[in-house]
């Protein structure tokens, strides 16, 4: 069977080493799923903080801890994992596509040790490719996590959105999503790769493939990338939750500034920074270890 070898002891099949893109996809999907399940509550809280506005755009009444307490009182502790199904549905192909695209781009252009410019370019390109393909699931995920919509399943959500809003609804927030995710991935990869180089060059005894190096560099990279891309995340959330209220990015951006001031662009930054930083650091750490175990590195 092309692409597989038969294990004579178990009768199972194993992926051959000449399929690095598939192995990269599987490693990325595994790492993304693991980190998403772990940190889903932080994403839920972030979405609630950014979306708790009624038809008259009332100001949200509580912060991060108040939001957590409200969710637990209303839906018990498992309510913190609301939206898990669309999150996983998006993450398995999304993170897999991102890592496999990144692997493909690196080897297509013969890039091994990435410079800062190469890292940011590859990160942006790989994330744009996966983000554009999965925007309908991103819309569903955002609405599942909010208190604005009540869907029973992903398929029901997709059907209702398409029926009521058409393709515009299914692709709402595409531009701000890419403006948030593509720069985040580019900046993250740049900070991550350069920080690893600095760690090794500063302390010669440090093993750049070790888990502590991966995770600590991932944490620092996530913090820096999250701060830069937070405004785009707020705009994206508003446009996906209230697609009929805004004519475009400019309108949404202006509304947020008029209603909340400059701080409005950083609403929900604490849970998002915690989640994105921890999730991405965990995903990269797991990915690096898995790819090493399966012989991709």
From TrEMBL:
<keyword id="KW-0813">Transport</keyword>
<feature type="repeat" description="Solcar">
    <location>
        <begin position="114"/>
        <end position="198"/>
    </location>
</feature>
<dbReference type="InterPro" id="IPR023395">
    <property type="entry name" value="MCP_dom_sf"/>
</dbReference>
<keyword id="KW-0472">Membrane</keyword>
<keyword id="KW-0496">Mitochondrion</keyword>
<comment type="function">
    <text>Mitochondrial glycine transporter that imports glycine into the mitochondrial matrix. Plays an important role in providing glycine for the first enzymatic step in heme biosynthesis, the condensation of glycine with succinyl-CoA to produce 5-aminolevulinate (ALA) in the miochondrial matrix.</text>
</comment>
<protein>
    <recommendedName>
        <fullName>Mitochondrial glycine transporter</fullName>
    </recommendedName>
</protein>
<dbReference type="GO" id="GO:0005743">
    <property type="term" value="C:mitochondrial inner membrane"/>
</dbReference>
<dbReference type="InterPro" id="IPR002067">
    <property type="entry name" value="MCP"/>
</dbReference>
<keyword id="KW-0812">Transmembrane</keyword>
<feature type="repeat" description="Solcar">
    <location>
        <begin position="209"/>
        <end position="293"/>
    </location>
</feature>
<dbReference type="GO" id="GO:0015187">
    <property type="term" value="F:glycine transmembrane transporter activity"/>
</dbReference>
<keyword id="KW-0999">Mitochondrion inner membrane</keyword>
<keyword id="KW-0677">Repeat</keyword>
<comment type="similarity">
    <text>Belongs to the mitochondrial carrier (TC 2.A.29) family. SLC25A38 subfamily.</text>
</comment>
<dbReference type="Pfam" id="PF00153">
    <property type="entry name" value="Mito_carr"/>
</dbReference>
<dbReference type="InterPro" id="IPR030847">
    <property type="entry name" value="Hem25/SLC25A38"/>
</dbReference>
<dbReference type="InterPro" id="IPR018108">
    <property type="entry name" value="MCP_transmembrane"/>
</dbReference>
<feature type="repeat" description="Solcar">
    <location>
        <begin position="19"/>
        <end position="108"/>
    </location>
</feature>
<dbReference type="GO" id="GO:1904983">
    <property type="term" value="P:glycine import into mitochondrion"/>
</dbReference>
<keyword id="KW-1133">Transmembrane helix</keyword>
